Amino acid sequence: MPLLPLEIALGRLVKGIVARHPELVGRLNGSEWRCVAVDPNDLPFVILLDMREGSLTLRLARTLDSETAHARISGPLIALVGLVDGVYDGDALFFSRDLVIEGDIETVLALRNAIDDADIGLLRETAALLEPYAAPFDRVGRSAIAVVRRTLGLGGAEHRGNAS
User: Fold this and answer.
1) What is the pLDDT of residues 20-55, one digit of tens each?
2) Which of 26, 40, 90, 161 could tie 77 with a disulfide, CB 3.0–4.6 Å?
3) What is the largest CA-CA distance in the chain?
């Protein structure tokens, strides 16, 4: 499957998040450019988040081999999405080894703190892109996510309390 259509869709999602949460980029501002690789180890691609002065962009790559990243976060997709949504605790996932962090830990912590402070919910952010169908999409999406979590046996043990 080609990555370009997915990259365009995810790029649009990131632009929407930045537009609705400008404080996110403000928290990530720094004098140095940083790239964080988000590596869902159950998918055949890597998400590269480029953080530059005043912007946040997304690229996809098949592997991290030919890419430059200052840090890498890897784990199952459901855990990575749960981190962004505030459903799972990053510390618990890290110490249980479900989440692996390599490279510039300071950059990863800055990203984590910025996302936490912005109270981003991926389902809510995706729904916002689908106006006027946002409300039905959100309802169906929440039901689907609940079914997936129950099916996979993912309860609230690592829950942080601020679901999307």
Assistant:
1) 998 888 888 765 778 999 999 999 999 999 988 778
2) 40
3) 44
pLDDT of residue 123: 81
CA-nearest of 68, 57, 56 to 30 is 56
In the chain the beta strands, taken as DSSP E runs, fall at 34-40, 46-52, 55-61, 71-75, 100-103
The answer to whether the Cα torsion of 62, 65, 67, 68 is positive or negative is: positive
User: The tokens of 49 are what?
Assistant: 């988040």
Burial category of 4 from C-beta neighbours within 10 Å (exposed 0-12, middle 13-18, buried 19 and up): exposed
pTM for the full predicted model: 0.80
- Measured CA to CA, the distance from residue 39 to residue 28 in angstroms comes to 20
| Both structure tokens of 156 | 């609230």
Distance separating alpha carbons of residues 121 and 82, to the nearest angstrom? 9
